[in-house]
Every structure is written in structure tokens, then in C-alpha cells.
Write a structure and sequence with these properties.
Length: 266
């Protein structure tokens, strides 16, 4: 039994190099609880994330956005299905290997910043690298710090920084180790529109200028407009996808999804 033509299977890249997705999910299911209280947070999600692509994930509250990100980022495990980060299938890995993948290949930005309050901005940014026992790449670190505009705030503790500055520290922390992919779960959810635009501008530049792969959950059509494509999630499934989104087109699509009349009757 051979697996014929496995090198072309499923890769929809015409005439391009045989790229491997940075991360992908195959028929992912996640069930919480049991019996009557059972919730299918993910109900058969298959999706690929390509190098240098900025993907936004949208959908109503409870549609499974955070669950999907956590499963892709090796922060949670699925009930069934597979997650790949590059060639590594997470479900086949032990704790040690999962820790290494989380540490070396994945960056995560949380809505609530999650900085260590006793550390300075710079110490927060380099913390994952320090924990890993690695030396930071100084040139890259400088690039990241200058891109997020934190050069003159490096000695400040999080409590001495605005929300927007704290989230820019968190973004710099996520990028400092040059991960293969950065996941951001509503990174602008706690920010005003000006600070939010700065964070989004930085994520966009990390993709356009450094080829970073970014996946971002957002409720905000304007935020989604920064992405290269938008996935729409509902009830644990991907129900639509939009390429080259603009805020207006995303808003239009959301109206369609939000309208109660648009929901099929069970
Ligand atoms: N730890 C948990 N225990 C039980 N149910 C959960 C848990 N986490 C999420 N859920 C449920 O799974 C569904 C998807 O949640 P989530 O992924 O957080 O959605 P979103 O991020 O889109 O708001 C929701 O119905 C939620 O209540
Ligand atoms: Mg969520």
C-alpha cells in the first residue's frame, strides 16, 4: 500500500513551490461536558494557515474562536481530529515536545495582555527566550522593539504603561523568538481605537515586512480589514471565508450572519 502523489495532495498552490502550511487543522472536534450539558465547541473544523498570511477569525460569542486558537496553539487538546504545526502532528506528541513547540514555534497574544507585573517591558519581551535558555537575536529584538515603538519605555513596568503600550509589549514578546506563527485572541478587545490601530498596524507590518504568519480573532470589522483573509465561524464550524477583506465588506457579511431570520430553523 503506497500513498501516491502525497506531495501534491491538498496543496492548492498553482505553479508555486510545494509549500507546507504553517499550521492546519483537520476535522477538528472539541466537546465540553457530557450528556445533556454537552457542548460541541468545534464541530468539524478543517483549515490551513499559509506562510506570511494574516488571517482574521470572526464569529459570534461562543462560536468556538478561542477554542480553535487554543487547539492550534497547543494550549488545549481537541476531542478528535488533528492539528499540525508544520510537519508536527500535535496529537502524536508528548508533553515535552508540545512544550518545545509552544515555546519555539508559536507566539500568543491575549486580550488581557498577560504581562508579568514585576518585570520591565524589556524583561517581559525577552522572558520566553530567557526561560528557553536561549540568547536573544539582538538585531531582531531591536527591529521588533523599534517596530512597536517601545524604545523609550523598555525600563517601565506594565503598571506604568498605557493599555496600548502593554499590548505592544505583549506583541513584541510574541514575536521576539521569531515564531513560525503568532496567534492573537482579540488583541484589541481592551483597547481604544487609536491604541487598537497601533497594535493592528504592527501585526500587519510583521506580516508584510517580516513574512510573519498571524492568526487573529476579532469582533471588529475594522480590525479584520487589516487581514489578508477572514474566516467566519458559527456554532463550531467555518461557515464562510473572505479574501482581501475590507471593513465594509466584513460588516456587510456580519449583518447577514447576525440576522436571526438568516439562521435556518432546526
Ligand atoms: N472550559 C470550558 N468548559 C465548558 N464549556 C466551554 C469551555 N470553554 C468554552 N466552552 C464553550 O464552548 C463554546 C465555544 O467557546 P469559545 O471557544 O470560548 O467561543 P468564542 O471564543 O467564539 O467566544 C461556548 O459554548 C463555550 O461556552
Ligand atoms: Mg473567545
Amino acid at each position: 500500500m503506497t500513498h501516491a502523489a502525497s506531495d501534491s495532495g491538498g496543496l492548492a498552490v498553482a505553479d508555486g513551490p510545494a509549500l507546507v502550511p504553517v499550521a492546519r487543522a483537520v476535522d477538528l472536534h472539541k466537546v465540553y461536558g457530557s450528556g445533556d450539558t454537552q457542548v460541541a465547541a468545534l464541530d468539524g473544523v478543517s483549515v490551513e494557515f499559509w506562510p506570511g498570511q494574516f488571517t482574521a477569525i470572526m464569529g459570534p460569542s461562543g462560536s468556538g474562536k478561542s477554542t480553535l486558537m487554543h487547539c492550534l496553539a497547543a494550549l488545549d487538546s481537541a476531542s478528535s481530529g488533528s492539528v499540525f504545526v508544520g510537519d508536527a502532528e500535535l496529537t502524536r506528541l508528548g508533553d515535552k515536545e508540545l512544550t518545545r513547540i509552544r515555546r519555539d514555534r508559536i507566539g500568543f497574544v491575549f486580550q488581557a495582555f498577560n504581562l508579568v507585573p514585576t518585570l520591565t517591558a524589556l524583561e517581559n519581551i525577552t522572558l520566553p527566550i530567557d526561560i528557553a535558555g536561549r540568547k536573544p537575536n539582538q538585531a531582531w529584538l531591536d527591529t521588533v522593539i523599534d517596530t512597536v515603538g517601545l524604545r523609550n519605555r523598555l525600563d517601565h513596568k506594565p503598571s506604568q504603561l498605557s493599555g496600548g503600550q502593554q499590548q505592544r509589549v505583549a506583541c513584541a514578546r510574541a514575536l521576539a523568538g521569531r515564531p513560525d506563527i503568532v496567534f492573537a485572541d482579540e488583541p484589541t478587545g481592551n483597547l481604544d481605537s487609536v491604541a487598537g490601530a497601533e497594535v493592528l498596524g504592527f501585526l500587519r507590518r510583521s506580516v508584510s515586512e517580516f513574512g510573519q504568519t498571524v492568526v487573529m480573532v476579532t469582533h471588529d470589522p475594522n480590525a479584520a480589514g487589516y487581514a489578508d483573509r477572514v474566516l467566519f465561524l458559527a456554532d463550531g464550524r467555518i461557515v464562510d471565508e473572505m479574501a482581501q477583506p475590507t471593513a465594509d465588506r466584513v460588516l456587510d457579511r456580519m449583518k447577514h450572519f447576525d440576522a436571526p431570520a438568516a439562521r435556518p430553523k432546526g
